Amino acid sequence: MTHDFIARPGKENAVTRDGRLTLNGTALNLREAKEGDAGPYTCEVSTEPARTLNHTLDIRVPPSVFPANNRSVLTVKMDSSVTMACHARGNPRPSISWSLKGRKLTRPPSGNRLMVTKAQPEDNGLYTCTADNGAPTTATAIITLNVMYPPKVRAEYKEVITGVSYSAILACFVEAEPMAKVKWYRVGDIPVDPLRLAKTVDARWRYSLIFNMVTLDDFGVYTCNATNYMGNASAVIHLSGRPKPVRYFSPPLGDENTTYTLVWDVESYAPVLAYTISYGNESDSEAQWVNFTLPGTSSSSSLHSSSHSFANLLPGNTYHVQVIATNEFGESDVNETFVFTTQQPAGTTSPGGDEPPGDHFTHPPPSPQDVVSEREEAEEPLQVTPTTGAPAEDVEGLEVEPTVQERQVIRDGVEAAESSASAQDSAAPTLTPAERRMQMGAFLTAIILSCFFS
């Protein structure tokens, strides 16, 4: 665009079609410059030949942007592709960036276009097209993308536990585009009673079925069903009266070596009929666990407490236990296995523990053969076979009961043997327990034989 300004000698001779242009000597002043004012300007001097001077005016224009074809809302089906576009103006030419819900998109846009392939529900939202050319302010345009998809239904709780005459709420969350129609059914596609049960929905698309006072007939399975023209989906919720899972309150480390007391409680709106207990050592498989049943507990509230003492446990061992509560509506779930450990025996250390300080000498443990032979020697009764009198076959296996005098002799002999052993202990090397028993047995045998032959 060429702007003509004709000047003649004398200010009054300045001629222009735009009042924003004024001549100040040889200078041309422009007020309130506009985008259309940009371009070349020519100053011409009326001489022979004429002399000219050209100037180019560049106007910086803040950016502006708008959706292509003025389509600010786009609706597509799931798994289809869609392209969003913006047109921007400004000087210099603006650059365009895209963001979704305030987060800049990492996918590379193609200039002023943004393509979404295989659109999914998570692609839904407000897309912002931002134009920037370095001006103090930027320009934005918003395009809303709606991806249509069948409903998604999620139960808030898969099971709601309550009791007769108590209240209860069943709830499900529904996502759908377009918005779904939600209905509640009992098993068998039986609609719920709209006159007795309240149905609500909040801003989070949480649909609720409210029982102000549960009756025995209300217990059972319910379905939250959502439908739009893209499809339908449902979630199943069980309204139950059975006990909730048991909660344990005992410490993991017991106070005793061979006993342990387990304390628990359970929430049940009906009386607890029985507790089924299973427990076993951690080294045992579940098939080896011990199972038994305890009578239930009654309570004026929905919270029931009970306990049990386990006996004949191994010291320093770890046990696993499960408790299941039963009422007229069924059994509680087992959501955890309780683990406890009995105390170590006094004077022992845990595996890998340090030995007690001080000088000490420990004999090596006897072999299994030594233990068996010593037990056999201790349990075998003393048998005496005289050298004269009855034949050996008549006295074989005969256990001779000593008289009172003989018992006194034996006691005196035992005391003498113990005194002798004590005296020898100080002078002779220390004997092992087995050697001492052999020495004592030989000494007693000699005393008894002397009684019979005296």
Automatic annotation (TrEMBL):
Residues 63-144, 151-240 form the Ig-like domain. It comes from the Eukaryota. GO terms for biological process: homophilic cell adhesion via plasma membrane adhesion molecules; synapse organization. Keywords: Immunoglobulin domain, Repeat. It holds the Pfam family Ig_3. Residues 416-428 have a biased composition (Low complexity). Residues 343-401, 412-431 are annotated as: Disordered. InterPro entries: Cell_Adh-Cytoskel_Orgn (IPR050958), FN3_dom (IPR003961), FN3_sf (IPR036116), Ig-like_dom (IPR007110), Ig-like_dom_sf (IPR036179), Ig-like_fold (IPR013783), Ig_I-set (IPR013098), Ig_sub (IPR003599). GO terms for cellular component: axon; neuronal cell body; plasma membrane. PROSITE patterns: FN3 (PS50853), IG_LIKE (PS50835). Residues 242-345 form the Fibronectin type-III domain. This is Protein amalgam. It comes from Chionoecetes opilio. The lineage of its organism: Eukaryota, Metazoa, Ecdysozoa, Arthropoda, Crustacea. The gene is Ama_3.
